[in-house]
Write the structure tokens for this entry.
Amino acid sequence: MTIRSATPADVESIAEMLRRLAEETGDSARFASTPETIRTHGFGDAPLFETLLAERQGTPAGMALFFPHFSTTLGAPGVYVQDLWVAPEARGSGIGAVLLAAVARRAKTGWGATYLALSRHVHNDGAAAFYVRLGLKTQTDLLHMYLAGDGFSQLATSPTAEADT
């Protein structure tokens, strides 16, 4: 197995792995990533994320998509893992742990990260057990929230947004 940084030539593979992850987590209806959005936002002029790929004999077996994060509470930079996926046939082989370790190493050396953060789907008991085995803890005093679609557009174009800029 090898771990390597993804390149623009990998956008089709990344999109397929993300699609499979969305299917497994029940997010297919909301899933909108395409090879083009991955190319634009991950490999364009101002990349918003990085991706590490795990390969076995040249075939993608897993991926981790991540980006810099900052905690004002800790007063330090970290890394947020947006997506971690391992092919079902490769699960239990240690690829997920190797990918997270590679992300942590990349973030620590790349921008001085001192912590790793991620979210998992509530119904994914396998992921919960995996993360606990690696030492991750649930942060019970915070609740992950988001705003998207029309609500986000309305907020971004509200008079309040203009007054604050």
The mean pLDDT is 90.
